[in-house]
TrEMBL record:
MF-aspect GO terms: ATP binding; ATP hydrolysis activity
Matching PROSITE patterns: ABC_TRANSPORTER_2 (PS50893)
Organism: Streptomyces longispororuber
Key words, A-Z: ATP-binding, Nucleotide-binding, Transport
Lineage: Bacteria, Bacillati, Actinomycetota, Actinomycetes, Kitasatosporales
Biased amino acid composition, Basic and acidic residues: 310-330
Domain of life per record: Bacteria
Domain ABC transporter: from-to ranges: 2-232
Protein name as annotated: ABC transporter ATP-binding protein
Region ranges (Disordered): 310-355
Family, as annotated: Belongs to the ABC transporter superfamily.
InterPro entries: AAA+_ATPase, ABC_transporter-like_ATP-bd, P-loop_NTPase
PANTHER family, per database record: ABC TRANSPORTER, ATP-BINDING PROTEIN
Amino acid sequence: MIATESLSKRFPKVTALDRLTLDIGAGVTGLVGANGAGKSTMIKILLGLSPATEGTASVLGLDVATSGGQIRERVGYMPEHDCLPPDVSATEFVVHMARMSGLPPAAARERTADTLRHVGLYEERYRPMGGYSTGMKQRVKLAQALVHDPQLVFLDEPTNGLDPVGRDEMLDLIRRVHTDFGISVLVTSHLLGELERTCDHVVVIDGGKLLRSSSTTDFTQTTTTLAVEVTDSDEHPDGTGALRAALGARGVTTQDDGGGLPGAGHIVLLDAADEAVYDFVRDTVADLGLGLVRMEQRRHHIAEVFRTGHEQHGQRENHEQHEQHGHHGQPENPSGRPAAPTTTPPAPQTGGAQR
Ligand SMILES: Nc1ncnc2c1ncn2[C@@H]1O[C@H](COP(=O)(O)OP(=O)(O)OP(=O)(O)O)[C@@H](O)[C@H]1O
């Protein structure tokens, strides 16, 4: 879908992309990086809107330097910033964009109605967009990117400014763009956590350089840590505490911080490198007369991969600040907008949506 070879973009005072070599296949790919990492610059080059300083790039096999027009016919683009005219309705705007992409009038109207329904904006489609919420505006921007039935879409920070519910809905929509229509997606975010569950593949850039490009499952390999959740009972009103005590009495060490997972304190974590531990835990739970809600191997979260790297580079403090702000599924700052670009190169913020 996308290939770059030693792609660089230098502005007078900053190198936005630094010799980036990438090969991105079909599916949903996340391009993640802190603010200023070079994500938007990359998308503009891939659309043929901004020339690279060095290196080459192709999209759908077309050279960005010479075939920008053809690329834009086949690719949809959802820009990051608010760019919707306030005094026209979603229908008028998306029909206009469909016509700009070459659809005849009747097809443009039909596709607009279908696409707006798909993004969940059917009822409000005749109202002027100036009165729309941020979530509705993001949906219109997504609809205009999809209306001409592209093979690939570039979505630049589509969850920006959304509350947790809006963010989850947008992520589900993005996933369905691929599963329902077979359209491949390149989606940017400064939040690792949200890409973890949406994307098949994640590319991480930092200061214009490639940090890592891997399938999501490679990022999130299973660990030997077992997470166990049990019910309470009349005999043991604190079932979790009773299980910890019983396992401890039988010589099994448990961690009691919940590992930062949601519901921490209700989850017992223990090392299960040996498979016999599974039976042992099950028998202990049964002996206590508790219900076993779940017993599962923990997976790494993408953010942990980067946390380890950062601690090695003495940037733990910086990272912990992100963690503190990364409440479950919530934006990192009250506005939901990215924080100002930093000069130290932190890995992308961890978002916390999965934690
Ligand atoms: N037209 C420009 N002129 C000069 N510098 C630019 C220009 N466009 C981008 N930059 C700089 O290039 C770097 C990368 O910017 P870019 O917008 O690609 O980052 P980003 O990862 O998309 O971040 P954000 O999410 O904040 O937009 C930044 O330092 C930015 O200030």
